[in-house]
TrEMBL record:
This is Porin family protein. SUPFAM superfamilies: OMPA-like (SSF56925). Keywords: Cell outer membrane, Membrane, Signal. Gene3D superfamilies: 2.40.160.20. InterPro entries: Beta-barrel_OMP, OMP-like, OMP/PagP_B-barrel. Belongs to the Omp25/RopB family. Residues 1-27 form the signal peptide. It comes from Jiella avicenniae. GO terms for cellular component: cell outer membrane. It is found in: Cell outer membrane. The keyword Aminoacyl-tRNA synthetase does not apply.
Amino acid sequence: MMRPASVRSFAVFLFGALALTAGSASAADVVYEQPVTAPSPEAPSSPIYVWSGPYAGAFVGYNFARFEDAGTASFDGDGLVGGVYVGYNFETPAIVYGIEADVGGSAVDGSAFSPSLGGDVDGEQNVFGSLRGRVGVKADPFLVFATGGLAASRNELSLGGSSDSQTSVGYTVGAGIEAKFDDDLTGRLEYRYSKFGNETYDLGNTSVSSGFDEHSIRAGIALKF
């Protein structure tokens, strides 16, 4: 038969063992979760500018011209110009190249007194156009380009009550910068120099041979298809 002291000692031992077992079970039930790391934001990708393909646009500008040897009188003219242009671009990773044509109307005019003809010779440019190659270096969203090719200009000379119109053929060269506003819309600033050969104008009782050249500053806007 167990003594009361032994019973108390056994009870203390049993209680301690149960408490230790319960604590171990509770610790085993604890789930340690790894902290969730928020994904780092992705760096915004650079926009891709596509220059290749067909396009069409319109331009306005101002021309500074010179009528050469018009009845021994050479004189300056100037005026507003405007027109349309179409083209097609090809591109490599760094270069854009293609072909472009334009046609426009002109308000360029000027006049000078010709001693040999005994009167004022008036000169006007009416319409003009060109067919050119174009090549540029990409600096997205910009394109720095050069252009050059064939050009034609319809000019008119007048003396007294007589006038005559002729079409002069020559060349045009220039350079400019173009910018993409979005995938389909571009704007440009351009400088062009054009020089045309001499043509003979029948002014009543006399014939006058005259050449023509011009400097043009233009701004244009175009849609890419």
